[in-house]
Each structure stands twice: as C-alpha cells, then as structure tokens.
Amino acid sequence: MSETPATLSLPQMQPDVLEFLKSRRSNLAKLMTEPGPDAGQIQDMLNIAARVPDHRKLTPWRFILFQGKAREKFGPHLASAFTKANPNLPVDRALFEAARFTRAPLVIAIISSPKDCPRGTPKWEQELSAGAACFNLCLAAQSYGFAAQWLTEWYAYNADIDKALGLSGEERVAGYIYIGSVKTAPIERARPDMDTIIHHWTG
Ligand SMILES: Cc1cc2nc3c(=O)[nH]c(=O)nc-3n(C[C@H](O)[C@H](O)[C@H](O)COP(=O)(O)O)c2cc1C
Fold first, then answer.
1. Which atom of ligand 1 is nearest to the CA of 28?
2. Does 185 have pLDDT greater than 90?
3. Atom 22 of ligand 1 has which residue's CA nearest to it?
4. Which whole-number Å values give the CA distances from 104 to 31, 37, 145, 172, 190, in the listed order?
C-alpha cells in the first residue's frame, strides 16, 4: 500500500534565502582545503541535489563521489587519458592532471543519465534536469557553509574518462562539483546587464 504523500508548506517569504541567493558565489576549486562535509551533510546535500524538477520522474541523473584516497586513485585515469589526447605535452603536465580531484576534499561527478521515455520526455529536458541537479548541489553545499564550484574542464568531454567512470549509453558528465572549505572570501564578478536580457512581450 502506498503512503499518503506529506503535505508541505505554502510558499512563504524566506528573507535569509533571498539574501543568500543574491550574494552567492562559487569558489575556486584550487583554493579549497579541508574540512569537507561529513557523511550526514553529504547525504543531505545529495538529497537536495536530487530534489529538482524532473519531467515524468525519470531520475535522469546519478552521482559518483570521490573522497579521500579515491581522489588519488582516479589520478592514473586522468593522466593516461590526458596523455593520449595530448601526446606531445610534457610528462609533468600529466602529473598535474592526475592531481585534479585532490584539489578539494570532495568531488561529486553528476552524470546525466537520460532514459528512453515512451511517453516522450525529450532528452534535452532530462539534460536540463541534470544541470538543475548540479546547481542544487552547489546551493546545498554553500548553504552548509562550504565552498563549491561546478567544473567540467577537459575530463567531462573525454571518452576514456567516461569509460573509467562506467558511463553507458547516452550518459555523460554534466559536471564535477568540487566541495570544500576556503579561507579567502571571493570578490564579486561581472554580472549581465539585465536590461539587455529582459524583454516584456507586447505582441
Ligand atoms: C556547465 C558548467 C561548466 C563549467 N565549467 C567550468 C570550467 O571547466 N572551468 C571554470 O573555470 N569554470 C567553469 N564553470 C564556471 C564556474 O562553475 C562558475 O560558474 C564561475 O566560476 C562563477 O560563477 P558564480 O556566479 O557561481 O560565482 C562552469 C559552469 C558551468 C555552468
């Protein structure tokens, strides 16, 4: 027997959330240090990441976590894929690439995993949902007081890395979300001129 769905709150004013959203910024992965979130916080962040609009409830995304030694263990995959794609670059560059995931205490790869939907949800919408999951994860991490950055770099677009991650079918990396702590506050970056991107349809 299925459970009765919980009744949630009516929409309400959330001044703290608005203030947070107005000033939120990403932090550079290369500036991140320990500590990262604990197990309970990570679970909570993943629950939030999965709480995104998802047309026809297809769950078109999944998460791969890199923590502790696993970050270094993935290094040889990064180094060999990089060397294969850039055979003329020096070896020390491959060593640099191997250390990518060690920049932050936690890296979460969000995998766009679109499903064949007999009822017709387009793949595009499923990929948009994966993007929403990426950003919700950033918001969750930042709401916990951690630094977060959504990166793709070259290894979101490399077939050897896809294979090492165990991606199948139409799966691809939507983003690597780096999460950690930072000691330096970010400065604001240039934002769009809103007048150039807002139009009121008048017919
Ligand atoms: C899909 C996606 C991929 C990104 N990949 C990179 C990347 O590879 N390297 C990078 O420096 N920034 C990348 N960014 C940008 C950063 O995540 C971040 O948005 C930017 O540094 C500042 O954004 P903020 O407004 O959250 O502070 C990417 C953003 C998106 C949406």
1. 21
2. yes
3. 26
4. 8, 11, 15, 22, 25
